[in-house]
TrEMBL record:
It comes from Nocardia camponoti. Keywords: Acyltransferase, Transferase. This is L-2,4-diaminobutyric acid acetyltransferase. It comes from the Bacteria. Signal peptide: none annotated. Its EC number is 2.3.1.178.
Amino acid sequence: MPTQTMSLDPAAATAATASQPRLRLRAPRLGDGAHLWRIARDSQVLDLNSSYAYVLWCRDFAATCVVAEDRDGAVVGFVIGYVRPDAPDTLFVWQVAVDAAQRGRGVAADMLNALLDTVADAGITTLETTVAPSNTASRALFAAVARSRGAHLRIVDLFDATDFPDAHEAEQLHVIVPVRRHSQEEK
């Protein structure tokens, strides 16, 4: 399978943060891994991966991830994802997190939309993610992103709680199609 190279489109990042002029969206750099880990830990709702995993995300999957930084250069949010090896037209979003001080300002949707614009240019037509049924904020986020893009959102059961070795809640698969670049008129 050919390797897909994607980079966050600066025009998409600028347009996506029009409502947040003090934030800048960009692809993560290796040094951002510690910040991603801290934001995930401090969220108190995300499954916290090892710090090593976040550093690897920044190195190996930067083309399918995005970070938001404030005007002082502090990382205040991230989306991490990857192209599914058995479905090269599908972006799987692993985690979305925003620093507590930035929540409720549309940062998560801005990051997702900027990333989707970028990967759409690389042939991605589908977004997948899993969300626990009790996670109303994430359910609302992905529904709003699908609606704003004129896309269809399908939700199906994927992982039952018994699939996990710990007390993890079941996860439902959220599928958004089609993923295509926003035109300036749609924004």
